[in-house]
Each structure stands twice: as structure tokens, then as C-alpha cells.
Structure to design on (438 residues):
């Protein structure tokens, strides 16, 4: 294959959405992904309506999303007394022009991977290809150091580099060598999936508990017509005041359910049995809730960060994957305007780095789950009528504010033109030359 115009480090959701976007606008690209084999790893994630809109614009269909997930109908917070703190409809029934989806993260990645291979070709994604770093060249281009799983190493020249290599990004480490280590606030999450009867609307996202001790669950499949059971994604979470840094080792480590079930032993109500939900899981992954301190810029000339590499955030707002997809589309739109040039990357940085870095910090402060903090502060989590604790107007204003910050305020999104106009293309593209490093 000829050397790529745009080199993408990482074939996760952000990297693959970028490849599909670049192909759509006529920009050649190459993805290098460190894993040797693509496997559907991970459990549930949410795709907010702004991201679903972008997937539709990429030609991913509703029926394809229905195979890997389910349109969400409700978002609800419930107190430990089993009473609602807040609930609202979501997706089309709320009035959005696009649904919100709860999907299996690994199956979404596999769907995007299949699309890249179908549309661009099998050699558009190199597996077992780890990016070690990059060097800017005197002609304005970049040389990327790639280490292959078989031990070979290669320097590849590219016009632009997109670092979409996740929270442990090598591209970001090269761009910001003095960045602080991973940030952890003391929360551990245990994630799993269980076949169970979906509750409430049948497609509800429910967060139950307090801001330091809670369970979040939502279906990520349509119910089986024979059994009525759906695949329920659950995240059990505990926050320690005096956290021990050794707990940070558990990044997506499989653990026996007994290691954490006791935190939820008496969490039963007549409508929900949390211990049974957790015990029904075939496995559980432990992972600390981590993010990264924002950096002042996501761009170093012809190199740009995208997705978790740019803005790894706590999953409290359910928007990490959604923002990675939106990043890819905004980058594509700005390339249509400025060409596949550093000017497009600078415009992307100017548009997104500030607001999304603020969103990272906001999610660190609990994101939409911040309502649980308020309940805790005002009544220690005990209440009969939530209106006496947080009046409805205050609850609604809190959520509206979050949705606006995360880019899915309904009226704004419904009114907004497509990020990339149908048929838009980048005017002229030219292949990179091999030149000396600067
Ligand atoms: C295995 C895995 C499982 C996950 N499971 C969940 C989950 O269950 N729920 C949830 O909310 N979020 C999960 N996440 C995180 C979630 O996917 C991201 O927050 C979000 O989708 C943003 O995606 P991203 O593409 O920016 O980053 P990621 O999804 O992290 O993708 C980054 C990709 O880059 C690759 N990579 C890393 N370093 C290099 C390198 N040096 N060179 C080349 N390639 C590299 C990685 O293998 C990965 O495929 C998971 C991430 C991973 C990697």
C-alpha cells in the first residue's frame, strides 16, 4: 500500500469512525491497531443521539444498530429507598430526531471494523501494529514509528497523524511528555452482563444508590421473543475515601463475583433484586474509574488527538464513545473546509479542546449523577418526597445544563445542520514525501 495521507493510531471506536469519515470525504488513510486480532471486547456503552446521527450519516443503519443494541427509552436515577429522584424519556420518544442506543461496545467496534474493510479494503487496518511514537518532518509531515507483533519495526511517513489510541495513548505521551499520570478518584467499578427481564420501560437506563455506592444497569439487547429476557449491562460501583493506589492495577481485570457482591448484599426491593442480577452474570470485570487531566492542546502541527486519547473521561455521562464519534465527524467537516491540512487540525482543536476538557472535569464531578450528590448533601440520601429535597425545576435545569455541555441538548441538536453535508469531499489530496526529521 502507498504511504497514507492520514495515519490513524488505534482501531477503537474513535479510530474506525475516523477512517470511515475520511473515506467518505475522499481522504486516504491507514489504521494501525496494536491488538493482533479484532475481538468484541468490553460490555455496554451508550450512544447519545448526536453520535447516532453521525453513524446514520456514515451509512450505518438502524437495523445494524438493532443487532448490537437497543434504542433507550428512559434515563432514571433512583434513591436507596427505591423512590425516583429523576427520570426522563430519551431518544425518539423524547422528541429527538435520532434515537439513543445502548449497545455492546465490542460489537460496535466489530461493526465499524467490518465497514472499514468492506469500504476501504482489508489492508486499511494493520493489526498487531503498535505505534511507539512520532517525529515531525522538515516538510511539515510526520514520521510514525510502528512496532509489529512479529518484532519488525518500520517508520511510516504521513501527511497527518490522528492519535486515537485510547487512554494510554502513545501519541499523546509523545505530544505531552510531561503530562501527569492517570487520575483516579477512588471509585472501582465492576462490570458484567446478565440475561434478565428488563424493567420499567423495557429500555431504561437506571442509576440506583448514592454518589459513593451505586449500581447502574440497562438492557443492551432486544428481549428474546421466547423467554422475554434481554442482556442487561450492569456496573456496580463503590467509592473509597482513602483509596489505595494498588487498586489501579485492575484495569478490565476479570474477577470472581464474590469479591464484590457483599457490597450489594441487601439491595433488594419488590421490583429489583440486585444480588440476583449480579450473580446472574457469567463474568465480571473490575476497573477503576479513571480519566486524565486535560491538556492545553490536542494538536502538535500535523498530529492530532481524538477520542479517549484526547479526553478520557469518567463514564458518568455515558458519552466517551459518543464524543469519539463526534470528534471524528468534526475533524472530517473541518478537513472539507480547510483541506487535509494542519489548519483543519488547528480548527478542530479550537472547536473542541476547551469545551470537551471542561466536560471531562464535569464528569469527574459526577456528571449527570451529580443529582445524587445533591440528594446526599441535603438529606443524607433519605427522603420521602424528592420534591422536598430538590424541586422539579432545579432537577430539570441540572439535566438540561449537562445535556447542553455534552452536545445533545434536544432543540439544538434537532435544528443543527449535518456535521458533514451529504456528498462533501476534500478538494485536493497529495501523498506524503519522505524527508528529513526536524
Ligand atoms: C478493550 C476495551 C474494552 C472497553 N470496554 C468498555 C466498556 O465495557 N464500557 C465502556 O464504557 N467503555 C469501554 N471501553 C472504553 C471505550 O471504548 C472508550 O471510552 C470509547 O469508546 C472511546 O474510544 P476510543 O476509540 O477513543 O478508545 P478505545 O476504545 O480505548 O480504543 C483505542 C484503540 O487503540 C488501540 N491502541 C492502544 N494503544 C495503541 C498503540 N500504541 N498503537 C496502536 N493501537 C493502540 C487499542 O487496542 C484500542 O483498540 C473499552 C476500551 C477498550 C480498549
Amino acid at each position: 500500500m502507498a504511504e497514507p495521507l492520514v495515519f490513524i493510531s488505534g482501531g477503537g471506536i474513535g479510530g474506525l469512525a475516523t477512517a470511515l469519515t475520511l473515506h467518505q470525504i475522499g481522504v486516504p488513510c491507514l489504521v494501525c491497531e496494536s491488538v493482533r486480532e479484532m475481538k468484541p471486547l468490553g460490555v455496554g456503552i451508550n450512544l447519545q443521539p448526536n453520535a447516532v446521527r453521525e453513524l446514520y450519516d456514515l451509512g450505518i443503519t438502524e437495523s445494524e444498530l438493532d443487532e448490537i443494541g437497543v434504542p433507550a427509552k428512559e434515563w432514571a436515577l433512583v434513591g436507596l429507598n427505591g423512590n425516583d429522584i429523576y427520570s426522563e424519556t430519551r431518544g425518539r420518544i423524547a422528541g429527538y430526531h435520532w434515537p439513543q442506543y445502548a449497545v455492546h461496545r465490542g460489537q460496535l467496534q466489530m461493526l465499524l471494523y467490518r465497514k472499514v474493510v468492506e469500504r476501504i479494503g482489508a489492508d486499511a487496518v494493520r493489526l498487531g501494529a503498535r505505534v511507539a511514537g512520532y517525529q515531525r518532518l522538515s516538510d511539515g509531515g510526520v514520521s510514525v514509528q510502528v512496532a509489529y507483533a512479529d518484532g519488525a519495526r518500520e517508520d511510516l511517513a504521513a501527511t497527518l497523524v490522528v492519535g486515537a489510541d485510547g487512554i494510554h495513548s502513545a501519541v499523546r505521551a509523545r505530544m505531552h511528555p510531561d503530562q501527569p499520570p492517570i487520575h483516579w478518584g477512588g471509585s472501582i467499578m465492576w462490570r458484567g452482563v446478565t440475561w434478565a427481564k428488563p424493567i420499567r420501560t423495557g429500555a431504561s437506563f437506571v442509576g440506583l444508590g448514592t454518589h459513593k455506592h451505586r449500581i447502574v444497569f440497562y438492557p443492551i439487547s432486544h428481549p428474546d421473543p421466547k423467554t422475554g429476557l434481554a442482556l442487561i449491562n450492569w456496573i456496580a460501583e463503590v467509592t473509597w475515601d482513602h483509596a489505595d493506589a494498588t487498586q489501579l492495577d485492575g484495569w478490565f481485570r476479570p474477577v470472581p463475583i464474590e469479591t464484590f457482591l457483599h457490597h450489594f448484599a441487601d439491595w433488594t426491593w419488590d421490583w429489583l433484586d440486585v444480588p440476583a442480577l449480579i450473580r446472574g452474570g457469567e463474568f465480571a470485570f473490575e476497573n477503576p474509574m479513571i480519566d486524565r487531566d486535560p491538556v492545553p492542546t490536542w494538536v502538535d502541527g500535523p498530529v492530532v488527538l481524538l477520542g479517549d486519547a484526547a479526553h478520557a473521561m469518567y463514564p458518568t455521562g455515558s458519552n466517551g464513545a459518543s464524543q469519539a464519534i463526534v470528534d471524528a465527524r468534526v475533524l472530517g467537516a473541518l478537513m472539507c473546509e480547510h483541506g487535509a491540512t494542519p489548519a483543519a487540525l488547528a480548527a478542530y482543536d479550537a472547536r473542541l479542546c476547551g469545551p470537551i476538557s471542561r466536560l471531562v472535569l464535569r464528569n469527574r464531578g459526577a456528571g449527570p449523577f451529580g443529582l445524587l450528590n445533591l440528594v446526599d448533601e441535603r438529606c443524607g440520601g433519605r427522603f420521602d418526597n424528592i420534591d422536598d429535597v430538590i424541586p422539579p425545576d432545579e432537577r430539570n435545569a441540572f439535566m438540561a445544563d449537562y445535556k447542553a455541555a455534552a452536545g445533545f441538548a434536544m432543540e439544538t441538536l434537532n435544528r443543527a445542520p449535518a456535521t458533514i453535508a451529504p456528498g462533501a469531499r476534500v478538494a485536493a489530496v497529495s501523498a506524503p514525501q519522505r524527508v528529513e526529521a526536524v
Q: What stands out?
A: Residues 9-15, 32-35, 41-43, 45, 105, 130-131, 164-166, 168, 170, 191, 252, 307-308, 315, 320-321, 324 surround flavin-adenine dinucleotide (CB under 6 Å). The CA atoms of residues 125 and 149 lie 14 Å apart. The longest strand covers residues 183-196. The mean pLDDT is 91.
